[in-house]
Amino acid sequence: MSDDSRPSPATARAEARTAVVIPAAGRGVRLGPGAPKALRALNGTPMLIHAVRAMAASRAVSLVVVVAPPDGAAEVKSLLDAHALPERTDFLVVPGGAERQDSVKLGLDALPPDYDIVLVHDAARPLVPVDTVDAVIEAVRDGAPAVVPALPLADTVKEVEPASAAGDPEPVVATPERARLRAVQTPQGFDRATLVRAHETITDNVTDDASMVEQLGLTVVVVPGHEEAFKVTRPLDLVLAEAVLARRRLNDGF
Ligand SMILES: Nc1ccn([C@@H]2O[C@H](COP(=O)(O)OP(=O)(O)OP(=O)(O)O)[C@@H](O)[C@H]2O)c(=O)n1
Ligand SMILES: C[C@](O)(CO)[C@H](O)COP(=O)(O)O
């Protein structure tokens, strides 16, 4: 092939195939005793299935890799088989690891070669709207190495000196300027090679993938997040998630 017939990097990125890695291997300790969080039901359907459908709702997504609880891959495969999912999307299931970061890495390792854009989406954010997913993909296609959806904060944030004993008062150290702060959600989107390099290079335990890319010295950009992309973390979040689903059913005229 002559150089002239090769697509430009911008064209190649615009046409790149997109895969999503869904880390779903967490226990959900903060949600209280029960099945692993991703397998718990929201309105009768496992949270993971809601999250998978939210990702597969994007026509740009052609592969979803679910990272299952370490001993739950067979159960997750059966769940995917038992629920209606778009036929245009392929699905893979791999067992996860001890920390979120390990689970994402195991999902990345399972990706076939022909995907150049990768999204990482928490199973614990089952209700993210498709417009948010598409906005993240578009920003990566436009050339950003890493993209996060995020929202401005509703509360003022204080930096404190953490108490040495539980229940002790904590002195405030600083009040960061709220207008410059954002609460970060998922799906986070990446140029695949960048995310792979981040996971190979950064060994500190971090809570999100974009911060690993920041540590490489690259710019991470923010697109608008959505209030329905909240993370189901504590019991009250389950109540909120079911209320959002009930509102959607009403709006859809069911
Ligand atoms: N070893 C782990 C830990 C977390 N996750 C996933 O990472 C996402 C975000 O994590 P979080 O909501 O904190 O889930 P848990 O770790 O399950 O929650 P907790 O800290 O309350 O146990 C979830 O979809 C979770 O399943 C994962 O795949 N592998
Ligand atoms: C990736 C994440 O959802 C972005 O908000 C978040 O950092 C996950 O953190 P957690 O400690 O696993 O809840």
UniProtKB/TrEMBL annotation:
<dbReference type="InterPro" id="IPR018294">
    <property type="entry name" value="ISPD_synthase_CS"/>
</dbReference>
<dbReference type="InterPro" id="IPR001228">
    <property type="entry name" value="IspD"/>
</dbReference>
<dbReference type="InterPro" id="IPR050088">
    <property type="entry name" value="IspD/TarI_cytidylyltransf_bact"/>
</dbReference>
<dbReference type="InterPro" id="IPR029044">
    <property type="entry name" value="Nucleotide-diphossugar_trans"/>
</dbReference>
<keyword id="KW-0414">Isoprene biosynthesis</keyword>
<keyword id="KW-0808">Transferase</keyword>
<feature type="site" description="Transition state stabilizer">
    <location>
        <position position="37"/>
    </location>
</feature>
<feature type="site" description="Transition state stabilizer">
    <location>
        <position position="30"/>
    </location>
</feature>
<protein>
    <recommendedName>
        <fullName>2-C-methyl-D-erythritol 4-phosphate cytidylyltransferase</fullName>
        <ecNumber>2.7.7.60</ecNumber>
    </recommendedName>
</protein>
<feature type="site" description="Positions MEP for the nucleophilic attack">
    <location>
        <position position="231"/>
    </location>
</feature>
<feature type="site" description="Positions MEP for the nucleophilic attack">
    <location>
        <position position="178"/>
    </location>
</feature>
<dbReference type="GO" id="GO:0050518">
    <property type="term" value="F:2-C-methyl-D-erythritol 4-phosphate cytidylyltransferase activity"/>
</dbReference>
<comment type="pathway">
    <text>Isoprenoid biosynthesis; isopentenyl diphosphate biosynthesis via DXP pathway; isopentenyl diphosphate from 1-deoxy-D-xylulose 5-phosphate: step 2/6.</text>
</comment>
<dbReference type="Pfam" id="PF01128">
    <property type="entry name" value="IspD"/>
</dbReference>
<comment type="function">
    <text>Catalyzes the formation of 4-diphosphocytidyl-2-C-methyl-D-erythritol from CTP and 2-C-methyl-D-erythritol 4-phosphate (MEP).</text>
</comment>
<comment type="similarity">
    <text>Belongs to the IspD/TarI cytidylyltransferase family. IspD subfamily.</text>
</comment>
<keyword id="KW-0548">Nucleotidyltransferase</keyword>
<dbReference type="InterPro" id="IPR034683">
    <property type="entry name" value="IspD/TarI"/>
</dbReference>
